[in-house]
Amino acid sequence: MPNLRSAVPHLRIARPSRDLAAAERFWVDGLTLDVLWRSTADGPDEHDLLMLGWPDAHWHLELVAADAPTPTPTEEDLLVLYLDGPVDEDLVRELERAGGTRVSAGPYWDRWGVALADPDGYRLVLSTRGWSNR
């Protein structure tokens, strides 16, 4: 069995999306993630999907076109990016222009960052904290 503590595994976060084009605008135009992969359904058991991330990151966000059920994110469905410094208000405005909505993520996150809901209602938190002082 591999030692997961010493390895650097790649993390995949998969979510359904009602509108891949709207989600792409938010994550790519707003947050500046790259499109790492895109595919279109060719058959009955396939889905349109979009993989987003930064090429050198050890994670990616996979968005899958949702026919049913409709995505129902809760306030706890967070993707947190630890910036280790202030949140750039220009970035927040760009995320809002790209379809995001500034929201409260509760007292802790409101103190330590800025939260936005993406077009599907999932929350992105831009945290002023660093990962080491989380």
UniProtKB/TrEMBL annotation:
InterPro entries: Glyas_Bleomycin-R_OHBP_Dase, VOC_core, YycE-like_C, YycE-like_N. This is VOC family protein. Pfam families: YycE-like_C (PF22659), YycE-like_N (PF22658). Residues 7-129 form the VOC domain. It comes from the Bacteria.
